[in-house]
Amino acid sequence: MMQRKQQQQRLRPCRFTPADALVIASCLLLLTSTSYAFHVGGTGVILHSSSSRSTKSTSSSVSLLEMATVDEAAADQKNQVLDVNDDSYDVVKVDLNDGRDYPIYIGTSFTNEQLSDMLTSHIDGKQVLIITNDRIAPLGYLDKYEKLLAPHKDVHTLVLPDGEANKNLEILQLILDKALEEKLDRKCTFIALGGGVIGDMVGFAAAVYQRGVNFVQIPTTVMAMTDSSVGGKTGVNHPLGKNMIGAFHQPQCVVIDTDSLKTLPDRELQSGIAEVIKYGLIRDSALFEWLENNMDKLLERDPVATRYAVKRSCENKAEVVKADEKEAGVRATLNLGHTFGHAIESGSGYGKWLHGEAVAIGTAMATTMSAELGWIDSDLVERTYRLFEKANLPLELPLDSPMNREIFLNYMAADKKVANGQLRLILLKGPLGNCVFTGEFDREAMVNTIDEFVAECDGHSS
Fold first, then answer.
1. Is 335 a catalytic residue?
2. Catalytic annotation present for 307
3. What InterPro entries does the annotation carry (predicted)?
């Protein structure tokens, strides 16, 4: 299962500037069936191309996109930390090149003056609707932001039920009802105060209300801070598939105060770390190595380690979104483990798994499958498993899981990355920090991986 397949390719190098590399590579994915590998480093960018492949394939129409590591001074970052002061903060820019650029403010214990200045500078109109959930509201965050904005804006609030099970059209309707009842106009701004579920729903509501109004993200979970609040993906779930109804709608800004993680339950903290590990696996080997050495600090909510992990994740996400905002190519690689993971969430019933927990199992499946294909060494599989275990994340389905091969394949067939009837997956290939987005793989390896993970489940025997 872990045998390494040797591949011989003749490479033709050509040089591009670092600023253009990701955009060029994403365009090449769409325009040709040639396989490309691009390597980003401190000395520039080299783009290699090859039209020959030796992997087993079910189609020749989908190209391989081989993403390389982004590890500036990797050896120095294993134990790197930031100099964090109470009143300092970082700004990561999401550069979309068309006037829709926006900042991600990352700090620890922002002052009220800082928060007020940040928010009011990105809210043009007078009307504001702050939406949160019934878990966040009692913690004082809603009152805090309402009082901050009240002297400057006409503030309305809405509290929704918490949880993935409530990320649907019915709950979305409550946001739109509130906006209409308060007669909010096209200059209004929605504020998403909460985790990924709130952010996705509020962003989608902002995208469709009066054909689009502004919104601001104030994430309060690791998952939202490091992934879902950045990049403009919004939407709700459908009984037949996760996130199948939505839109791309970018926020005006993202305000991340890592101090809010003090009230986050341990299980949700661990869930969010799954997305941080993902960046290390697909494109940032230095971050992966740093996580291997600093996972205990993250679990202990060390403010310096937490802020570093959040900032590094946002930098990775911003770079990819700049290259491929609408997920036509490179951005799809951010979904490592998500095709398997979404099937687990949908097939098990929304709300039974936290998103990061399902992604952790899905990433374990993608890693196992990559090894079976001979695309990665067994050592990387072992390191990946150990890191997820350090984060207290699940790596296998429970015995009472309803999942079986048929359920997996049915939900995976409806995945958003399916193109022209062909399932495409994000898999690891090569050294740590490299991955591929491809539909060209041995289907037997995928089925074998699914069977291995469902072998002990109740659903397998039913």
1. yes
2. no
3. Dehydroquinate_synthase, DHQ_synth_AroB, DHQS/DOIS_N, DHQS_C
Q: How far apart are CA 387 and CA 403, in angstroms?
A: 25
Domains and CATH numbers, the chain: 123-252 (3.40.50.1970)
**Residue among 156, 167, 233, 283 flagged as catalytic:** 233
Is 389 known to be catalytic? no
Whether 443 sits among the annotated catalytic residues: the reply is no
For residue 293, what pLDDT is reported? 98
Q: What type of residue sits at position 209?
A: Y
- Annotated catalytic residue, options 278, 311, 338, 416: 338
Distance CA 113, CA 432 (A): 43
8 Å CB contact between 26 and 323: yes
Determine the length of the chain. Answer: 462
Among the listed residues 164, 268, 275, 372, the single catalytic one is 275
Low-confidence ranges of the chain (pLDDT < 70): 1-87, 458-462
Catalytic residue status for 268 = no
Single out the catalytic residue among 135, 317, 322, 390. Answer: 317
Catalytic residue among 133, 294, 335, 404: 335
- Which one, of 184, 185, 65, 116, lies nearest residue 434 by Cα? 65
Q: Angle 378-390/266-282 helices, nearest 10 degrees?
A: 160
The type of residue at 429 is K
| pLDDT of the residue at 327 | 87
Is 327 considered catalytic here?
yes
What is the share, in percent, of the chain residues with pLDDT greater than 70?
A: 80
338 tagged catalytic: yes
Summarised one tens digit per residue, pLDDT across range 21-78 is 555 555 554 444 333 333 333 323 333 333 333 333 332 222 334 333 444 444 344 4
Contacts of 385 (CB under 8 A, 6+ apart): 364, 367, 395
